[in-house]
Amino acid sequence: MKNYQPNPIDTSDVTLPDDLIRLTERIAENVHEVWAAGRIKEGWRYGDKKDAEAKTTPLLVPYYALAESEKDYDRNTAMETLKLIVKLGYKITK
After folding, report:
1. 52 with 6: CB under 8 angstroms?
2. What is the pLDDT of residue 1?
3. Alpha-carbon distances of 4 from 1, 7, 81, rounded to whole Å
4. Residue 51 DSSP SS3
5. Burial of 4 (0-12, 13-18, 19+ CB in 10 A)
6. Whole-prediction pTM value?
7. What confidence category does residue 94 fall into, taking pLDDT thresholds of 50, 70 and 90?
8. What are phi and psi for residue 93, nearest 5 degrees?
C-alpha cells in the first residue's frame, strides 16, 4: 500500500445553504465527542503529551477547550461530509 494515492470526491463545486453551514459546528463537536469516547474506551487518558505507548493525549478535553487548529480539523470533516451528501444528490431537511 505504499503507492496509495487518496482520491476524495471533489466537492469544491458544492455550496451549502446557511442552515447546513451552521450545522457544521454541531457535527464537529460530535465528531470530537465520538473520537474521545472511543479513545477512552480503548484505555487512553488525558496527558500533557501524546504518547501512544502510555495511551495519553492532550486532546481528551471538551470540544470547547480544544485549540482552534484542532477544532478546524473536526470542522473540515463535518463540512466535507455535508458537501459529499449534497454532491451525491441527497437532501437534508429538518
Report:
1. no
2. 76
3. 5, 9, 22
4. strand
5. exposed
6. 0.87
7. confident
8. -125, 155
| Cα–Cα separations (whole angstroms), residue 15 to 30, 70, 71, 73, 74 | 22, 24, 21, 19, 19
pLDDT digits (tens, 9 = 90+) for 24-57: 999 999 999 999 999 999 999 999 999 999 999 9
Q: How far, in Å, CA of 49 to CA of 33, rounded?
A: 19
Please give the mean pLDDT across all residues of the chain. 96
Query: In angstroms, how far apart are the furthest CA atoms of the chain?
Result: 44
Report the Cα 82 to chain-centroid distance in Å: 12
Cell of 66: 480544544
Count of alpha carbons within 13 angstroms of residue 70, beta-carbon side: 17
Rounded percentage of the chain residues whose pLDDT exceeds 70: 100
Which cell numbers hold the place of 33?
A: 465527542
Q: Which residues pair with 46 in a beta bridge?
A: 57
